[in-house]
Amino acid sequence: MLTLANVDVVYGGVIQVLRAANLEVREGQMVVLLGANGAGKTTTLKAISGLLVAEHGEVTDGRITFAGRDITHADPAATVKAGLVQVLEGRKVLEHLTVRQNLLVGAHLRPDRAAVRADLDRVFRYFPALPELLDRTAGYLSGGEMQMLLIGRALMARPRLLLLDEPSMGLAPMLAQQLFDTISRINRDEGLTVLMVEQNARAAIAHCDYGYIMEGGRVVLHGSRDQLEGNQDVQEFYLGMGHGTERPSYREVKHYRRRKRWLG
Amino acid sequence: MRPTGIWFESYAAEARVLETLRARLWLLALLAALVLLPAVAGPWLLGEFTNLFITLVAVYGLYVTVGMAGQINIAQSAFVGVGAFTAAKLSGMGVPIWATIPAGALAAGCISIVFALPAWRVKGFYLALTTLAAQVMFPIVILALPMSWLGGLVGMPVMPPTLFGLNLGTPTGLYFLGLFVAALATWTAFNLPRSRIGRAFRAVHDNDSAASVMGIQVTRIKIEAFFAGALYAGVAGAVLAYFLQFVTVSSFTLFTSVWYLGMLIVGGLHSPVGPILGVVFVTLLQEGLHKFANAMLQADGGLGGGTVFALSSVVLALCILIALIFEPRGLAHLWHTGMKAFRLWPFPRN
């Protein structure tokens, strides 16, 4: 459904962030993108949704295709029209608008008002806390409520592929767990394809069908959930397992990084 | 927060501007009072009200561009001028009033697009500067054009308006014309935030990258916001032309533009009630001080006319400062909290 083939992204004409990144998302899958800070995860999402221009970034090489169409240089409004909706990092609600208005803005490109109203109910099925908050100003919601609103708003656009950028950021572990459960329920029940960037690796891997791990602007490892959970490197570096109770010493890690060249 | 006992059973009821029967009755009472006013008021008071209505329409335009879409526009007075000159020129050619007002609106809208185009590349203060250019260019262009086109330095007389054989040129006629356009502007301004394009304006205002991931074409929406705001300005200008009976460039200055912005900010940027409160508050203040200054001059307290009028400007500025210090969100915020307290009485508002 979505393919990135050898995509290079350069910011401001000098800083190369993505180096020949390859990625594939199949219809109906829930795919996670993991990696350390600065690995290029958010840049990958922005390259897909066309938001790089706002930050003086540019796809200099490679192709991004979505549902058979080349969207490498498409503008954000066009990608949304194609069915690709992104939830930005850092809870970018429209803070002066009410929750209801936020949700309706999500349906900006849809002319059918009756269907939009029906979709409000559909969103409330996944986020039962939202109807209570409809007339509240979005800027005053709590972090968890904002995240529900953002995902609800994205659903209002009836996307075919949902891009989520760190939905669990700043949430209490239990809230994050609930959020992941809801996202996978939406993925399952609606058949909505999801590509999610996460730091919370253990929970993210547990919920995904397939995962990619990025490092230094490249995809260095990928595999199905079982493969990732069984992979020793993933266990050591992202899940913090494999050392028993003792923490690894710096020398060991340095040595390890020399052995595993792909870690950059 | 609504008082107990008021609930809604349908989506439409919940989305209404006037939620309760009582609110609708209040509005009817206000409209009835305004319609009956000419029966009791003299021509001077009617003139003041007409002027207030026209200003309100212009400020509603700013509410759309600045308050809703967040694009600073310091050339509203120039756009009012475009509407006024268009109406004056057309009325001189014998075009009836029902055509000159929309034509004035459209002319102002089209010219505003030219100055909104930089929104494609720049935003914030830089965009505000391009609108300043519109304000500066307006008199230069009018003066540079041949006298026979738009009257140049002298200005142009405006034919008194008639509609279906009725003479609208009387104070009462102009009052009703002003009331009609002001009511129309108010109605559209209250409903715009509930519409798709209104929500897009406010989304662009709040966060343009978040708006663009919802499929909103940010640049287009910004230009549309300027266009919509200038439409209001054009209507205000056309009616103002009939009201003044004569248009010259000196009526449409940067000073007036700043006053329009000032009224909007004092009234409140984010609520459609804001422009009404701002325009009424500032106009009352201006007129009151004017009267007071005149009385001072009559009494001859030993101050010269220059000093008295300078002092009245200082007092006006002080009043606005005080209003902003104590209510930075504008009088509209005061209005909304007051209304809430009134509705929930005797319970404290939360």
From TrEMBL, chain A:
One of its GO terms (biological process) is L-amino acid transport. InterPro entries: AAA+_ATPase, ABC_transporter-like_ATP-bd, ABC_transporter-like_CS, BCAA_Transport_ATP-bd_LivF, P-loop_NTPase. SUPFAM superfamilies: P-loop containing nucleoside triphosphate hydrolases (SSF52540). SMART domains: AAA. Residues 2-241 form the ABC transporter domain. CDD domains: ABC_TM1139_LivF_branched (cd03224). Pfam families: ABC_tran. Keywords: Amino-acid transport, ATP-binding, Nucleotide-binding, Transport. One of its GO terms (molecular function) is ATP binding. Belongs to the ABC transporter superfamily. This is ABC transporter ATP-binding protein. It comes from Rhodosalinus halophilus. The lineage of its organism: Bacteria, Pseudomonadati, Pseudomonadota, Alphaproteobacteria, Rhodobacterales.
UniProtKB/TrEMBL annotation, chain B:
One of its GO terms (molecular function) is branched-chain amino acid transmembrane transporter activity. It is a multi-pass membrane protein. It is found in: Cell membrane. The keyword Transmembrane applies. GO terms for cellular component: plasma membrane. The keyword Membrane applies. InterPro entries: ABC_transp_permease, LivM-like. Keywords: Cell membrane, Membrane, Transmembrane, Transmembrane helix. The chain crosses the membrane at residues 25-46, 53-75, 95-117, 124-152, 172-192, 225-247, 259-285, 306-326. Pfam families: BPD_transp_2. It comes from the Bacteria. Signal peptide: none annotated. CDD domains: TM_PBP1_LivM_like. PANTHER family: ABC TRANSPORTER PERMEASE PROTEIN, HIGH-AFFINITY BRANCHED-CHAIN AMINO ACID TRANSPORT SYSTEM PERMEASE. This is Branched-chain amino acid ABC transporter permease.
